[in-house]
Amino acid sequence: MKTFYSLFFLLIAVSGQGAGERVPAGGRQLAMGGTSVAETDLWSLGNNQAGAAWLRGGSAGLAFQDHFLLKELMYEQLGLAYPLKAGTFGIFCSRFGNNQYNELKAGFSFARKFGKTFSAGVQVDYLRIGITGGYGNKNLFSCEIGLQYHADRNLILGIHLLNPVPVKISRSPGELLPVTICAGLSYRFSGAVVVSAEAEKDLVHKILFRAGTEYHFAKPAWVRIGISTDPVSVSFGFGIEYGKLAIDMASAYHQALGFSPCGSLTYSF
Q1: What value does the mean pLDDT take over residues 28-41?
Q2: What pLDDT shows up at residue 173?
Q3: Closest Cα partner for 252 from 230, 269, 236, 268?
Q4: How far is CA 25 from CA 28, 49, 66, 103, 166, in A?
Q5: Phi and psi of 17, rounded to 5°?
Q6: What is the pLDDT of residues 99-131, one digit of tens each?
Q7: What is the pLDDT of residues 133-185, one digit of tens each?
Q8: Residue 89 and residue 72: Cα distance in Å, rounded?
């Protein structure tokens, strides 16, 4: 059992995941290296809530991330967004881990546009961390804040702050949910090519960079590629849109640990 736990937590560290950390959501975003802070779709509910303010209609979706093809490192995500006159309300849920160690996150968000160029969003999060072996569950509350600036039709700037108020995970000194800030941009060179880049930093680890691009080569289809650091991995994927349904599939590749497939299914209504 000790060997299992040692291997499990080592893989969590290598994959860059930990309790309460920022995890990009959505197959499109993950195909583009995980760049997500300057996007404006359903998965903004998990990436930068300010992006949900630009949704033109309601949408719902499911997503998954299977790190290194191990079910113990599986992420499952669900999002639901509905815009009203006052702004966009959203619900975002995710689950990570297995019966030995797992994290459950549920968030309720609100995003609003201010004028034609600026939007802001806030989300209240509930996080439950469960560990077997007599450790029990830990229930925590935190929040997220997001901002976006649409400089013109082609350029979007975004910033996202996760856990801005330190929240203790345990009584041990330094056991806090990570305070993380992410800032980036997305630029559309034409109707067919989008390039995005961002940087992410918490109070402990070194700065992380992501970059990606997508090419809209046919009316219902896209191809995408990206790269991220710490650890270095490349990603690739495609997207298909059929009416109100969008399917985005992707995979990241780590030189030592292999492939991490992911994808999302989104329905607009």
Answers
A1: 97
A2: 62
A3: 236
A4: 9, 12, 12, 15, 23
A5: -105, 145
A6: 888 999 999 999 999 999 999 999 999 999 988
A7: 767 788 999 999 999 999 999 999 999 999 999 888 877 666 889 999 999 99
A8: 32
User: Tell me, what DSSP letter sits at residue 207?
Assistant: P
Distance, CA of 85 to CA of 263 (rounded, Å): 31
Q: What mean pLDDT is predicted for residues 177-206?
A: 94
- Element (H or E) spanning 4, and its range? helix 2-15
Taking residues 63-89, report their average pLDDT: 94
